[in-house]
Each structure stands twice: as C-alpha cells, then as structure tokens.
Amino acid sequence: MFHGEIHQNVRQYINGRWETSATTGVSTNPSDTSEVVAEYARADRRQTDAAIRAASDAFPHWSHSTPQRRADVLDRIGAELLARKDELGLLLAREEGKVLPEAVAEVARAGQVFKFFAGEAFRGGAGAGGGESLASARAGVQVDVTREPLGVVGLIAPWNAPFAVPAWKIAPALAHGNSVVFKPAERVPACGWALAEIISRAALPAGVFNLVMGSGREVGQALVDSPHVDALSFTGSAAVGERVLRGASARRARVQLEMGGKNALVVLADADLERAVDCAVQGAYFSAGQRCTASSRLIVEAAVHDAFVARLRERLKALRVGHALERGVEIGPVADAERLAGHLAWVEIARAEGAEHVWGGEALERATAGHYMSPALFLAEPGHRIAREEIFGPLACVLRATDYEHALALCNDTPFGLCAGICTNSLKHAMHFRRHAEVGMTMVNLPTAGVDFHVPFGGRKGSGYGPREQGRHAAEFYTQVKTGYMLA
After folding, report:
1. Of the residues 191, 279, 292, 411, which is catalytic?
2. What is the pLDDT of residues 385-406, one digit of tens each?
C-alpha cells in the first residue's frame, strides 16, 4: 500500500489477479520532477480484451446479487477511503500536483460517493425493488416498470481528479449490478492503482471490477471497439470524446461523455465585490485552473469592471504558487511540462490577438524543479481565442458587459455548456439567470468549481452527452428500463 513513499511495479488488476505487462511507464511528481511517484505496467489490447472477457463472465452472477451485498461492498470501499484520506491525499498531491488540502478533500469526496451509492443499491436502482406499479388501460392487467443493469461498462477517467471522478463512475456502476473495466489516465496510474487496491479487497467476485492502465490509443480504443462492452463513460477532452462517441455509438453501445467547458462567472454592478473576487479566484485558479468547472471567462458589468479587475489583480499578486505539499501554498504546479508549455503559448496568443495583459502568465522557479506558472489574467474581447477555447490551466480573461442582458448573452455565447455562475444581490436577476443560462449547472454567489457528491453533474451543448453523472440520476445511464405486463 501507499504510505507516501515510491511504489514500484504498479500492476493491472484482471479477473481478481494482479498482472504485470510487457511494457512499463513512470509517473513523476509535477512539484519535483526528480521524484518518481510510481512505475506502472502498461496494458496492451490483449490484456484489455482479457479484462473485458472477465467482466462479461462475472456479470450474470453480480447482476443478480442482493442489494445488501452490493451495499456492503460499496460501504466498505467508502469507509476505507475516508479512513485513509490523509495518506491517499498525500499520494494524489504528489502525483497530480493538487495542493494537499484539496487533495485530501478529493479523497474524502470519493469516500462519500461510495457511501452514497451503498444506499442507492437499496433505493430504486436495478434489483432494488424500486420500480413502479401502474394501472393498465385494460381491465385485469398489471403493469410494472423496473430497472436492470446494462452489463459490462468501460470507464475512462481523467487525470485532474483521479479519485473523485473514478468514484462517481465506479460506485454507481457496481451499485446497479454492472461489471466494470476501469482505465485511469496514464498521468495518474498510482492513484488509479490505489483505488483499485482498495476495491480488490472489498469482497467482489473475480472479474466484477478490473483495472487496465495504458494508452488511450490501445486500451481506450479496445474498450470502444469491443462488442462485449455495453456502455462507455468518458471524461476528458472534446476531441477524444467525439471519437469515443462515433466509435461506440456505431455499434449501439450506450455512451456518456463529460468534455469540459468554457465556463462564465457573471459579476453584476450590485454584487458584493469581495465575494465576487473570492468566487473568481477559487473558480478560475484553484487546482491550477485544471478543473472542467473552472470559470475562465469573467463577465463583469461595466459599472464595476475596473474596480473588480483592480481587486482581482491584487489578490492574484498575493497568491502563493509552489510545491503542492508546502504549507500555505494555494496553487500547485500544472500537471506536466507539455501543459506548462501550452499555457505559456496561450499567453503569447492572447497578447498577439490584442488582449490586455493584467497579471501573471510567467513560468516560475521554485526550490524544486516543477511545472510552476503564475496565475494569468487578461482583458479580452468576445472574439479572442482565450475567451472561446478551453485552456484548462491558470489563465482567465475578463469581458466587459454593458448590463445584465448583455452579460447573459456573453455567457451563452460559447459552444460549451457545463456550468455558469453569477454574483448579484438581485433575486430577479439570479432567478432569471438560473433559468436562462444555457448550462447544466448554475451557481449564485458561489464559485463555479465546487459541487456536491449526491446531486447530478454534467452539461449540455459541447460539454456533455448522455445522462448525468452522480446522484440518483446516475441510474439513467447505468440501468435499462423494462416494462412488464401480467394478467391478474
């Protein structure tokens, strides 16, 4: 188990056994690139196919297990995650670069997700007796509507939340009686392994849960292509998500996609400016801006535009950027060298397009060699690329709005639709915004990044496809409806 030290030979988990692979990879600490966090086995298509076959063979037994058995398994997993949140949070901070308090909170959230779905095993899901009995249009006929599990589900998770996102995919899949093949991102194999190791000791039958680590080109594509994978849940980039959708839907597999956003935080003239700045800093820059819910577009009403920008600039100047484990650091490194180079390139693109540079956007040196960048802020126009394309880093832009109607129009002027926030003391504008913002989630006087574990998560337009994740609505993806008629 991990206790903060280097772990060698992180392996696949297939059909109840730990396996090595022909090739290996290495994950390093983005706060200190000289530190190896893990060496990990890289699965190939053969091993992925073996995991899929194991899941397929295990499905009939698990799908008919009792709600009590499924609840016990999930509760056990959740309890261990909560008990070990400090230790596992340390691992997350070392491998992904999230500052330690955020990392510990993420592991705790993963534990809460498993605990929630332990309850869902009894409430209205597959095999839980939570169906509907309806009156038929015909005399003497009884109608029942029930839910059943799908089969084998392939779960492809991102690197930026390596405990929370896998939890909200794996937990409902198991709660509703499906078997699982889980592919974590290659950037965070140790986190994926640590979660799998806990699940492997939770009394699941062999093959119900499988871990395969490797590239999207090989492992991910095998999941997309396999006729034995009944459903795919993917979180990641829009470009990859589109390929997953085309490939899986061509063979009529069920598909769920979460593909990020270009989220807006609207600040109206009547807002509490200190609260608005807090929302902007937390939403746009915490976790180094590497959250799909990050508010990278700050749309500010003209009457308070200059005052808001001045206050935000002072807050950015005071933010501490550094090693994720250093006490008092508020923003850790970005994930890797490629992403750091990409973010610095975005700073030059913004300048070249005429956006006004307000603060930050430089590579930083710290005591350890890491991927550090100062939080960047620009004043932009709606047509600028930094105002339209997802950057997924510590870079935000401010757009000036003439009034509320203009701010709402700017908010909706994007191909994405994950979430949006508004800072205002007007109940009228807050309620109107909640109804008319073209997104899956809205926040009023709160940061856009930061959602609960028991309610639906997801977006519309280019941000999402298929049923929502999390909460009771997860059953819409992980189960199928059956209608039964009986002559009484």
Report:
1. 292
2. 999 999 999 999 999 999 999 9
